[in-house]
Amino acid sequence: MTSQNKQWQDVKENYLKLIEKKLAQVDHPRRAEILANVSEHLDSKYAELTEEKQNWETFQQIITEMGPPEEYAELLNVDGHGISNSEKRLLADQIHNLESSIRSQFILLAIFWWIGFPLSIIGSFIPPIEILGAMAIVTTTVFWCILLYRHWLVLQGHGARTTPGRAVGFGFIPIYCFYWWFVAYAGLATDTNRYLEEIGITHCRMSYRLAITDCVLSILLCTVGLIPVVGAIVLIPAMIVGYILIVQQRNCVLAILHYNDNN
């Protein structure tokens, strides 16, 4: 453990002890949950610091931004009539971090998308290139699954027909996935558009027909697409349709997060 890390641990523990002392004055079942959330949030703040910023002044700035310990006791006294400034800060920081993560990961998704699909198409005619294409496609799939998970995550509690874990996980079950993709993508378009309409967001939507088309193309890729030349032909529309769909996903997720941040 470095001296900076030890110094941070001391600052963090002292702050958590002060919060714990204030929370002890309130008889509420969420005391441990609040303390754990604050501790986790402090760890994420510290993890974002570069080595140059790991100093006493920055540590104190983080503690100041987290707010006075008594506000966390105030949070438990709200009793459903609103939220305290401390919880507002926690929620706002979490939303901002998620927005930033989605934007940066989408850039990587787009890069690997436009590397992997073209290489896979070319690889149908030049086998050695197909290996590079397959590696890029695997990476693309990982980032796509992360986006899908987060998309379903922001819909939880707002009429979502499935959970994020099922949306992603069931899509890898052989044969059954052919049905599930329609739930995870076409169903996602329906649930997203309904929620966007409910909260009054009009500038973005997911295309239901495009989602259906993407599911059909995905099934073709996993069946007749295993034939090299046929696979290359199906990959072309799948590449275009799929990319339009993930752009719509990103825009919808960011719009919902922006709405949540303002409310």
Note down, in words, how this protein is organized.
The chain has 263 residues and is an all-alpha fold. It has 2 domains: 3-82, no CATH class; 88-262. Helix content is 77%, strand content 0%. The protein contains 10 helices and no strands. Helix 1 runs parallel beside helix 3. The longest helix has 39 residues, at 85-123.
Elements, N to C (H/E): HHHHHHHHHH
Domain module count: 2
Structural class: mainly alpha
How many helices? The count is 10
Biggest sheet, in brief? none
- The total count of strands amounts to 0
Mean pLDDT: 87
Could you name the ranges where pLDDT drops below 50 across 5 or more consecutive residues?
Answer: 78-82
First CA to last CA: what distance? 41 Å
Strand content: under 5%
Radius of gyration equals: 23 Å
Task: Please estimate the helix content.
Answer: over 70%
List keywords for this structure.
2 domains, 263 residues, elongated, 10 helices, mainly alpha, single chain
Protein topology:
Elements: H1 3-23, H2 31-47, H3 56-66, H4 70-76, H5 85-123, H6 127-155, H7 164-169, H8 176-198, H9 208-222, H10 228-262
